[in-house]
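We include the pair:
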Amino acid sequence: MDSSGPRMLLLPSRASFDPACGSSAWSEDLDTDEWFGGPQTIASIRSFPGTNCWLKNGYDVIVLARRARRRRPAELNKTVQKLFALPWVGNILVVKRGFRERGCALNITQPEVSLINSLIERWIQLEL
């Protein structure tokens, strides 16, 4: 499997998520455990990082918790290094959230990937 570029994934929901309730899935309802070998944290992006430019949709960035990333300095993310030349440890999952229902998880389309790459690059720069 080529891990040198971003990929779009279909994430399954957690076993505890009950779609029969009529509610939409939120980031917390998605099963992301396969992508992380430790505790996860979710950061929400509502505006372009470092600016007051609001985005139509929000994005949740799911990453390995900071303390877990510090314990694994040798596991740098090759995609982040290749795209942004930034040192980042672990995977990054991005979940698009709805405009009207801010927490509702939505599908990401291929044309949005460039915007998401820009958002993530800037977000990582501010996180480091």
Remarks:
- The radius of gyration is 15 Å.
- The chain has a mean pLDDT of 82.
- The longest strand covers residues 54-64.
- Residues 33 and 115 are 25 Å apart (CA to CA).
